[in-house]
Amino acid sequence: MNPLLKACLSVYRRLARAYPHEFQLVYGEELELTGEDALPEIWKRHGIWGILRFLGDIALRLPVEYLSELRHDTAFALRTLLKSRGFTLAAVLSLGIGIGLCSAFFTQVDALLFRPLPGVPDVAELVAVQEPVSYPYFERVRDRHDIVSGAAALLAPVPFSVALNSARPQRIFGQLVSPGYFATLRIEPSIGRLFDPQTEQPGNSPVVVLSERYWRTHMNADPRVVGSTIRLNGKLAQIVGIGPKDFLGVWPVTPADLFVPITVGGAVAPELTEESPNFRVIMRLADGVTFTSAQAALDTLRRTADDKKPDDKRPKEGRQISLISAGGVIAMTPEQRASTLAVTFVLGGLILALVSTNLAGLLVARGSERAKEIAVRVAMGASRFRLMRQLLTESTLLSLAGGAIGVLCGQAILIGITALAVAADSGVTPPQELDYSLNLTTLLFTTAIAIAAGFAFGLLPALAATRGDVAGTLKLSSNGASRIYRRFGLRNLLVAGQVGLSLTVVLITGFIVIGYQKFAGIDPGFEPRDLVLFQIDPLHDGYTSAALVDRLPERLARLSAVRGVTLAASSPLADYVATPNVRVTADQEMVGVVRQGIGAAYFSTLGIPLVGGREFTEHEGAEPIPAILNQTAVRDLFGPASPVGQALRDASGKQYTVIGVARDSRSAYLMAKPAATMYVPLSVGAAGASIIVRGVPGQDTMAAIRDDVARFDPNLTLINPRTMDRQLAQMNTLIQGGSAFYAGLGFFSLILASVGLAGVTACAVVRRRKEIGIRMALGARRLQVLALVLKEGAALVIAGAILGFAGEWAASRIMAGTMSELARLTDTARSNPLLSIGAPLLLVAITMAACYIPARRSTRIDPVTALREE
Amino acid sequence: MPKTEQRAAPPLRTNWFHILLSLSGEEQHGYGIMQEVLERTNGQVRLWPASLYGALKQLIEEGFIEESNKRPAPDQDDARRRYYKLTRAGRRALEQEIVRLEDLVKAIHHKRHQEA
Predict the structure, then answer these.
(1) Which residues, listed in sequence order, are joined to residue B65 by a DSSP beta bridge?
(2) A27 to chain B: which residues are within 8 Å by CB?
(3) ipTM more than 0.90?
(4) Which end of chain A is more exposed for a tag (fewer CB within 10 A), N or C?
(5) pTM of the predicted model, to two decimals?
């Protein structure tokens, strides 16, 4: 035989030996023999093409044979899974929920961090300055064509009062932008034109650009709106164009529907009249300029600017300018990005690990049940590899089914979260929107983790199941091996780990839930019934002074449906967390307080009693500023002494005099105790004021107010009119929703752990039937047998509990490092003995109950039957 | 043959048909089947080894062929070779296919006759 044929034959033999083991057992030898016989004749008749065809034939049939085995494996796996419907259902559901949660987390992270800015080309090139800067600095940057090919400054988000035609004014959020904004972004209008540095000059009549979304939803996409006029903050402005599709400004997590050039000046946009408004700057770097060199150049620019202003208090050493990428939906520093990813992966990983270990435990238990079946198959010629493929096919089928449910589950969770956010939206603060739509990345990610989970929880049990000693297994009783019980076997490790993970999840979620609940539903300190609130923003409505604000409460107080009216800078319970915003002293140390501007009759309208002094009246002196303190502030500043008549000074030197003391009430929602608060007479600035009205019970106070205001001044926008009851309900919805989610999570992991433990104990009982039968025949009482079986479970639970505490400690450290809110919640909750001791006790109780039910079967074993069994 | 069975059978794969036809006379081993088909079709149909054994495996699974115990005289025998023979089901399937092909040829002749 010539060398070519010899080589060909050796390749052929190699391929033949690569066939599946079972195929080889039956046909292997023949295949080789026939090949040897046929080759010379093929060579003679067909030459080189024949050889190629010869090898190609076996090379192609090889994967076909494997695929055929896979088909058989899959069919067999399906039949097996359908036979034990309970197990399959439990497995698929728990996988579905676990994968769904991970998928939801991932989609959130993806929506926040990885989706590109919509509607803008070449987003990867966009960078932004992390800190806000002054406009002159921005102009210097813009003119440096060696660093940037285009730059723009913007203020965002900015509320605008917009009235179309003669409709009532409404609040829309938008951006104030420099004229080069759209050119820097390189976007084109849908219709009309966009801003242009040549056209937009100070002194021109005001123009606006609307978003395509607003144009579609509020103006029917009517092309005639271009050129028409609207009232913007009370002044007339012309619509010159509509933005491109999907574009909602940079950083559209707070979407912008309106764009106004800053050349309109402070008359139209009150934000521009503030002392030194801080602008965000976005830019495209010039060709060949790297991120780091741009950062260094801008830094130098900043320092030379500083040198010209020696009295500026900003620090001059070190880097002041940081650049961040601006191509996403939110402005985030790399550190923020990293911490968001870290939290998500920790939580997601925990959940997936929990579900996987649970399933692995169940599969191991099931594997030992099938020991005899497996032994028989090995005896009949199946290779270990083949058996493992079979078992892995089963677990992969389970996980793919779980993955499919997981995708649906994940979407459902996200729909729920979005609905919650909508319910909690007040229309006062800019709304936050994220695009959670299902996309290919999410699907791929979910499928990948499903398959990975399938392998993870399938591999170990498959290895364990196929390891067995064939002859030994076949000889033993049909109820399985009564091997010496291995204390630290694989199965026990898995179960202990599972219990531990469950405890970790239960503890963490329990802390969060208790933390929330503690803060919710506490007495706010005032009377919330029949209270109506709304906000007004006279400067944005076009009023040049705040004189209106003085007249309105008077008018409203005269309505028959109204018992009392007052003003405040912000409505009570407006924030979730109130932070001190000013430091004052009574000639000792500086104390941080929350300074809140209020109108006359505030406390009487809200129903907060005064414990000393008096309320503000309509006409208060200007210097020193009269102040009312709450009890906490009095304690912090004056101790037990009475503060009425005393003087206070703040960090900027303003003088106050205390005229009254009010009882503590909550200034924010999530504070465990009221913050030290100092009330001063309200001065209405660009942000407007809240009007709080105590209505007459039984009357429609809201309608009466609306009618009156419409008659009084139709141009005044009533922003977010609501009752206090509804606001509390809204806040509660968010809190309850969050609590429900975390409680559900904890509950879910507890169920998983219990199911796992029950399964393992049940298998243990079955396994030890003979042993138990012997013991009972020798006189063991039922209770003793029960104790014997439960001892196993108990040891695992205790080991798991220790792991659980350790895990919780570690996980909260990681998460609290990035989220101080969470740290506060967990610290407060941890000091609650109810949870720290109660949760582990609960876990132990539930898991022991889970063991007890199958263990009870052990006491019903009839020793005679057990001993007789073969 | 009952008419219902005739109508129900789907056409047999070409490879399978040739293998069954080959075994219709006497038992054969794999290489023998290969050679017989080659000769019978004048070199037009060659069953390559891997495809052959794949088909044999499938035919056994379908129940059309089975391993035969009859072996030739020991001096002519190679212990490594397995011999195959038709089962009753296989014979039936083969006959159904033959009838189907014959019907096809009849239809072609009829058509040609009409056009002539």
Answers:
(1) B86
(2) 53, 56-57
(3) no
(4) C
(5) 0.65
